[in-house]
Write a structure and sequence with these properties.
With 298 residues, the protein is an all-alpha fold. It has helices spanning 2-22, 28-46, 60-81, 87-94, 97-108, 115-135, 143-162, 171-186, 190-196, 202-227, 232-238, 241-254, 260-277.
Length: 298
């Protein structure tokens, strides 16, 4: 169980760095479709072993929505943003996804926000503003940092869309459906990947295969295993390690550093997420039957 958590956190942290390694050999389109294609093939092979069921036809529109937001849009926006945003900084910005999910849940699902949640959201938003300004030129926000924030919003939309499905499907099943549908939506970009593969370096090609097989496929399998055996709060707390490990891996592998102000903004985001996630007073009626921790990799 502890090993599953450690593998997940390490793989999701390394993903932000692997994107930076793969981008010189592949364009945004080729890397996005290539990563999801590898992940789809791996999950197709292991799906019978994991007892992944066919989804109900009535759930297909929502599943396609999960693929569009959590896979297709997320990959395109994150890969585009990491063209200039360092891996560690990108991981800090992606951690705004739970904050954005809380806002979307308020709008779409009518889930109320406590005062503590509002305070956490405000702090996290302020942290994201700090990072985008640091990545830009003076007081001009960075466009690529804005794209990474867009990826976080896309992932937050995925969190909200998948919530009703979690009552009927496992985390591995929803992830598999989302990756398969997200891959299908990206297939029109396949010619870009085909044209880039012959010219990509071995390092870039290895990074692409790693991204699809490890963080996107194996990472979600180990995460689902850990979630089934750990309290929700315990599993959620481990995700706070992802940006710090990403910063460390990026510094070691790519000699990338994070601006001190960006690090401060990242800490503001993490504290904001912690405050907004902290449970309020115990309810006396009808708690949800199942509770899942939002999942996010690089």
């Amino acid at each position: 169980m502890a090993a599953a958590v450690a593998v997940t956190v390490l793989l999701w942290s390394a993903a932000f760095v692997a994107i930076r390694v793969a981008l010189p050999g592949f364009g945004v389109a080729g890397l996005s479709v290539g990563r999801l294609l590898v992940a789809s093939l791996v999950l197709a092979v292991v799906a019978p072993l994991l007892r992944v069921r066919r989804p109900a036809r009535a759930d297909l529109p929502r599943i396609i929505g999960c693929g569009l937001t959590g896979m297709t849009a997320y990959q395109l926006l994150l890969n585009a943003g990491e063209r200039s945003v360092p891996a560690g900084t990108a991981s800090l910005l992606v951690n705004t996804a739970p904050i954005a999910a809380a806002v979307l849940a308020l709008i779409v699902l009518r889930e109320p926000l406590s005062r503590r949640s509002v305070a956490g959201l405000a702090l996290g938003f302020a942290g994201a503003v700090v990072i985008t300004l640091v990545q830009g030129d003076g007081l001009t926000p960075s466009l690529d940092a804005g794209l990474v924030l867009g990826a976080a919003i896309a992932q937050a939309s995925f969190f909200v869309l998948q919530k009703p499905l979690l009552a009927r499907y496992s985390g591995v099943e929803i992830t598999s459906y989302a990756i398969w549908s997200g891959t299908a939506l990206l297939l029109p970009l396949l010619p870009a990947l085909i044209s880039e593969v012959p010219h990509a370096s071995g390092e870039a090609l290895a990074a692409l295969i790693f991204l699809g097989a490890a963080p996107s496929a194996l990472g979600f399998i180990t995460w689902a295993y850990a979630q089934a055996r750990l309290p929700v709060a315990t599993a959620a707390n481990t995700l706070y390690l992802v940006p710090f490990l990403a910063i460390g891996i990026a510094w070691t592998a790519l000699d990338e550093s994070v601006h001190p102000a960006a690090l401060l903004g990242g800490l503001m985001i993490l504290v904001g997420v912690f405050i907004s996630r902290k449970p309020g007073p115990a309810r006396t009626q009808g708690a949800p039957a199942r509770s899942r921790v939002p999942q996010h990799d690089g």
